[in-house]
């Protein structure tokens, strides 16, 4: 990757630009490795340019900056559609009734399969540089899937308290869903109420894009995410605001 392309790619992430120089250098190295180890495939006639590959790779590397690419070893490719894509979904409810439906999605992480992304959604994020990051969101699902079904409980590091994680995430999830049901105001994306897996993925992307929201609204969960990702985005982002 040329220095010019890297510089342009860095502008797609406020967090990446806020990192200390040494961390930016490690992020650069990690991004280069991810570009070499994953395939980037266009779907529905979409052409994947070097700039698109670099942008996706950089954002995918942010969550594993201090974890390493071994956390992404279970999947090999990233599929990019020009816009939202349609998938067939089949699920069984608590009564054993099978429900079948067609869904329009902007992102998907398949167990033992690729990450699927909508480039249109990623472009919209680039315009606003807000608290959404589709790539980080789907990568969080991949981390969640490392120890089984996606349920908001990724494999924790040695020394992390599993009971405390389950307790604090469950409490935060209930608090968030109750607030939505009572029409309370929440700064987190409402999609987080879909299920515990989406709650973890939305919290993870917000952790790196607007960390103050997680730190202020769910402080106990912020500490768990800080321990898991081995990063402190709120402290880093405050550097550029001071």
Describe the structure.
The chain has 242 residues and is of the alpha/beta class. It has one domain (3-241): Collagenase (Catalytic Domain) (3-Layer(aba) Sandwich). The protein is built from eleven helices and six strands. Strands 1-2-6-5 form a four-stranded mixed beta sheet. Strands 3-4 form a two-stranded antiparallel ribbon. Strand 5 and strand 6 form a beta hairpin. Helix 1 (3-10) packs across helix 4 (50-61), helix 8 crosses helix 9 (211-217) and helix 9 packs across helix 10. It starts with a helix and ends with a helix. The relative contact order is 0.12.
**CATH superfamily annotation:** Collagenase (Catalytic Domain)
Total tally of structural domains: 1
CATH architecture: 3-Layer(aba) Sandwich
Please write the string of helix (H) and strand (E) elements: HHHEHEEEEEHHHHHHH
Number of strands: 6
CA gyration radius, whole angstroms: 18 Å
CATH class: Alpha Beta
Euclidean distance between termini CA atoms = 32 Å
From the spread of the alpha carbons, the general shape counts as globular
Percentage of β-strand residues: 5-15%
Q: What would the CATH topology be?
A: Collagenase (Catalytic Domain)
- Mean of the pLDDT scores? 91
Helix-strand category: alpha/beta
Low-confidence stretches: none
Largest sheet entry: 4 strands, mixed
Overall helicity: 40-55%
Strands ordered across the widest β-sheet: 1-2-6-5
Q: Key terms for this structure?
A:
alpha/beta, Collagenase (Catalytic Domain), four-stranded mixed beta sheet, 11 helices
Concise account of the structure shown:
This protein has 242 residues and is α/β, with parallel strands linked by helices. It has a single domain, classed as Collagenase (Catalytic Domain) (3-Layer(aba) Sandwich). It has helices at residues 3-10, 14-18, 21-37, 50-61, 119-128, 134-144, 162-181, 196-209, 211-217, 219-229, 233-241; strands at residues 39-42, 77-81, 85-92, 98-105, 107-109, 115-118.
């Amino acid at each position: 990757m040329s220095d010019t392309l890297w510089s342009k790619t860095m502008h797609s992430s406020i967090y990446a630009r806020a990192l200390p120089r040494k961390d930016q250098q490690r992020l650069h190295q990690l991004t280069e490795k991810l570009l070499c180890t994953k395939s980037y495939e266009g779907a529905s006639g979409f052409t994947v340019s070097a700039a698109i590959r670099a942008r996706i790779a950089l954002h995918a590397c942010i969550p594993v900056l201090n974890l390493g690419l071994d956390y992404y070893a279970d999947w090999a490719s990233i599929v990019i559609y020009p816009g939202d894509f349609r998938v067939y979904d089949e699920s069984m409810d608590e009564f054993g009734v099978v429900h079948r439906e067609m869904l329009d999605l902007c992102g998907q992480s398949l167990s033992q399969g690729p990450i699927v992304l909508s480039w249109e959604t990623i472009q919209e994020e680039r315009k606003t540089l807000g608290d959404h990051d589709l790539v980080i969101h789907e990568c969080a699902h991949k981390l969640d899937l490392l120890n089984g079904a996606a349920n908001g409980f990724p494999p924790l590091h040695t020394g992390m308290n599993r009971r405390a994680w389950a307790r604090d995430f469950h409490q935060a999830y209930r608090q968030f869903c109750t607030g939505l049901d009572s029409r309370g105001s929440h700064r987190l994306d409402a999609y987080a109420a879909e299920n515990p897996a989406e709650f973890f993925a939305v919290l993870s992307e917000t952790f790196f894009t607007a960390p103050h929201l997680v730190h202020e609204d769910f402080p106990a969960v912020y500490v768990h995410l800080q321990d898991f990702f081995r990063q402190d985005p709120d402290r880093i982002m405050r550097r550029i605001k001071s």
